[in-house]
Amino acid sequence: MKTLLRSVASFFLVISVALILSGCGVVNALKMRMANNGVEPVWPEGAVNVQLPTAYVSDKPYVRAIVNGQHEMLFLVDTGASITLLNDSEKVRSLKLEKGFDLPLSGWGEGKDSSGFQTELNSLSIGGIEFKDFKVAYLPVSQTDYYLSEDEIVYDGVIGHDVLRHFVWTFNRNTQTTTVANRPYQPSANEQKIEMDVFFAKPYIPVNVEFKPGHLVEHEVIIDTGSRHYFKLSSAYLEDNNIKPETTVEAADFGLSGAALHQRFTANQISLGDNQFNKVKVNVIKSDDDDDWWVIGNALLSKQVFTLDYIEEAMYIEGRKETAVASRFNKLGLELRKTKVGDFIVRFIFPNLSAEKSGLKVGDRIVEIDGLKASKLSEEQWLDITNTNGAHRICTEARCWNLEAKGVEGYSQFSAE
User: Fold this and answer.
1) CB atoms inside a 10 Å sphere around CB 60
2) What is the DSSP string of 180-233?
3) Contact at 8 Å (CB) between 272 and 296?
4) Which residues pair with 353 in a beta bridge?
5) pTM of the prediction?
6) What is the DSSP letter of 105?
7) Cβ neighbours for 212, distance < 8 A, ≥ 6 positions apart
8) Alpha helices in 272-355 (DSSP H)
């Protein structure tokens, strides 16, 4: 793709400078990305494809894998991750893995990078597809700014590009399955092919964005199944192209480097192939480069069945005749995360929305919502609740608050045209 080709020369210049300035940290990060280049997966004998039961939490797909022949663990399938990694969950800590070279790991957020290390698994088996002597990153996520509490660690690891690159992956949220194949994809008559470019361990596709009626642009975006959001782009692009959304809301996104405060607005339409999504919520990530941070997340991707063919470098989606409507909005302004013990923990309170004046604070534990115990509610159900206009009752152990969810005109509420 043109933008990527133009970026190659500058990329290698940046890398060479970074190697001089940053020493072993950058060297080790690059070494980790290439650590499994010689590892070939062992495909289950007689299998045409492998179907993985898939759970969706906050719109992200999770599958189970067997580590070292006997330990079943839960992994996020993350097309935005360059490498496979393990969190320091209780299950992972029980493996007592040997520490290899130090490994700085970065992600969304405005804080510092995380300090992990390289380690090796005897085997990693996903639906019977086995990788032997497989190198992974070990990340002590409980010590990062991504979490406030260790009981927020509800999964054990991330499947990254070093696994994904070998296969064809079909994600079907309707059937709660992910199908893996080891030969090029054969699309059906109603599927559209979209050019996909894999660059520096991440898949890119072209997407059309209509910021407002009549203002349409095409841009390459990263396909990120590990993102629970709809769409992200660079603040520099809006500034340099004099695009000024009429209504914005201040919010926060969380990654390995903590919270990334940003503005959100609603794009009139985003087109993925012929599929058009109206009124799509967009996160504007602070950057000095127009081409940084353009990402399509799984909240939007999972609205249709889609296939990523890493063998032939193509994406396929099911065509739709009707226009698809995408976004849910947090109309309460209360960002919660589900914990292992069943309650929700407050991670962020949006300015100028209902929760701001409630007295709720970051770190509070929510035990009841609208008369239902938090332990009986999934994160998916919470997202539906906060998108529903009207009164909602939110309770900690100490007290309850009555909050009013209502739309913000031009962002989460739209006048009839």
Assistant:
1) 22
2) EESS-----TTEEEEE-EEETTEEEEEEEEEEETTEEEEEEEEEETT--SSEEE
3) yes
4) none
5) 0.91
6) E
7) 268
8) 298-301
